[in-house]
Amino acid sequence: MIAVDPLFAHGLNWEVWVIVLVKVLAAFVVLLVATAMMIWFERKVISDMQSRIGPNRAGPWGILQTLADGTKLVFKEDLLPDQADRLTFKLAPYLSVVPAVLIFAVVPVGGVIRIGSHVFEMQVSDPPMGILLVLAMSGIAVYGVMLAGWSSGSKYPLLGSVRASAQVISYEAALGMTVVTVVLVSHSLSTEAIVQSQSGGFWHWNLIRLGFLPFIFFMIAITAELTRPPFDLTEAEQELVGGFHTEYSSIRFGLFFLAEFMNTITMSAVVVTLFFGGPNGLIPAIPGATIYMPIIWFSLKTVAFCFIYVWFRAALPRLRYDQLMDLGWKRLIPVTLAWLILVAAVVTWHWAGLIMIPVVLVAGALLVRAMQLGDRRSEEQSVLPVIGRRVTRVVRDPGTGGGA
């Protein structure tokens, strides 16, 4: 099933170009305002959870604190380390912001609107392979982090950027396989088509159709992709002084700060699109409700997931790096692969596909057994070769009878 944007059904003219331009500007402005509100929202909610006051000076309830902080960052001195690669150092922050904006461009935020003879969807663009664009942009975003650490000419930012690359690679596979399960039941790569396949009631949401577990896998993987707590190993200040952006200041540091919260909003919107029906919801019989109610439903669902990310930051301790890697490679990837096989079998063979359950269980048991055997090996047996173990043996001194 290939979705076609009705705006382009009758070709291009100046009116179509004006509508496209308005949609682009509106989406960009809304995303920027939402990011500013998200920063205030996170600081305020965490302060409430930890019995602190939080922002309360700039504006009512401290709502203008983000504007004050942004103004301060703009006027701070923009430092450039002596050993830095100038072009890459300046370019890296933009490579973190741009993917977040492009991901939001393919997210449906409402229904269909008619203006004169033109009918268009409440999203900037609906490419036939929109969900692949989301996966590509989520992977490209790490280039900004990697290049920022490398171009700084300092070792601590480099360590943070290397961590980010390994972390994204570790969870990209699980993220992709979870998205494939959604594509299998939706029969389309278009984000609008995925939303339409979930219309007709909440029992049609992919959250229920896929059995809840893919949603949990996706949340874990995307949280690691965003390097949000408890997976914020790229900026572990106790170990890395601040991570990949240690050498940044002024507006360039502000862009990294902006990208983190913007990505949180866009990925919350992606979760709503993939598993919770997007803007679908109960629409009352009120004039104009078909226009604004889908936007309200989408906004409420997205805000709920933004709150969940804030809750994670306030409640969960940071994982160790070995725990992060074990969760990604030893647990999340095998489980998501097993669930993908089951979903593919059921979609292809219907109820007969359940025959794959014992196959998956046997394969899982063999994998668990292999991991247990690996864990039982001592560090010396798994790392040192045989000749190395001979060198480390205790040698007796024949003259003294003691050990050398």
Shape: globular
Summed over residues and divided by their number, the pLDDT gives a mean of 85
Number of helices: 15
Strand order in the sheet with the most strands: 1-2
List keywords for this structure.
single chain, 404 residues, mainly alpha, 2 domains, two-stranded antiparallel ribbon, 15 helices, 65% helix, 2% strand, globular
Q: Can you describe this structure?
A:
With 404 residues, this protein is an all-alpha fold. It folds into two domains: 6-319, no CATH class; 320-379. 65% of the residues lie in helices and 2% in strands. The chain contains 15 helices and two strands. The protein has a two-stranded antiparallel sheet with strand order 1-2. Helix 1 runs parallel beside helix 11 (289-315). The longest helix has 36 residues, at 14-49. It is globular.
Summarize this structure briefly.
The chain is an all-alpha fold and 404 residues long. It has 15 helices and two strands. The chain is 65% helix and 2% strand.
List the helices and strands and how they pair.
Blueprint: H1 14-49, H2 65-75, H3 86-105, E1 112-115, E2 118-121, H4 130-151, H5 155-186, H6 191-196, H7 206-209, H8 213-225, H9 237-240, H10 250-275, H11 289-315, H12 321-349, H13 356-376, H14 379-383, H15 386-391
Antiparallel strand pairs: 1-2
Helix pairs in contact: 1-10, 1-11, 2-10, 3-4, 3-10, 4-5, 5-8, 5-12, 8-12, 10-11, 12-13
